[in-house]
Write a structure and sequence with these properties.
Length: 186
């Protein structure tokens, strides 16, 4: 039920914005222009995307990010949310690498995310996050020996797509990794 609610939130927000702008456009321009609000909304979304990807937009987002990081009490919550919600396409945070780790029985493997860096005090152990399917925001955190982690040639975005789809989408890298069966350090 929680996964359904999480999936519905963006759809409900989008539908509300479309309805609201369409209602205001009909009140402003009259009912003889059906769908004008939808067109206006799409143009506004495009302009917002253009602004955010511009140099000025990136500066504004960086400024807002800096302010939110300095607010006492909110900064820890904001940074935690940002690490979960903003999956990097790159080389930082717990979502930097996609790995397979053995389950508690040792008979199966679980899809997980890892920074690939050892934890402080133990150079042979890394921290991995095993998300639940189809809701990756709930999961478990494990400390796994680095030699038991099998790093996959898979982007975090593709792994999240597989998790959210409940296994309906399985990237070829998963099948190749299960055939290979080797263990590589992250």
């Amino acid at each position: 039920m929680a996964a359904g609610a999480l999936a519905a939130i963006p759809l409900v927000i989008t539908a509300f914005i479309l309805w609201y702008v369409d209602t205001k456009a009909r009140a402003l321009f009259g009912a003889e222009y059906p769908g004008l609000g939808i067109g206006i909304t799409l143009v506004l979304i495009y302009l917002l995307g253009t602004f955010v990807s511009s140099v000025l937009g990136k500066w504004v987002i960086g400024l807002a990010d800096g302010i939110l990081r300095r607010i006492p009490g909110l900064s820890a919550l904001y940074q935690s949310w940002k690490q979960i919600a903003v999956t990097t396409g790159g080389h930082e945070g717990i979502f930097a690498h996609v790995v397979l780790v053995p389950d508690e029985s040792g008979l199966m493997r679980m899809l997980a995310f890892s920074s690939g860096k050892p934890i402080d005090g133990d150079p042979n152990t890394c921290c991995v996050y095993v998300p639940a399917s189809p809701n990756p925001t709930s999961g478990r955190l494990f400390f796994v020996p680095m030699n038991r982690c099998q790093r996959l040639d898979l982007t975090p975005q593709a792994a999240l797509k597989m998790i959210i789809s409940g296994g309906n989408f399985v990237p070829p890298a998963i099948g190749a990794a299960t055939l290979m069966g080797g263990r590589l350090a992250p």
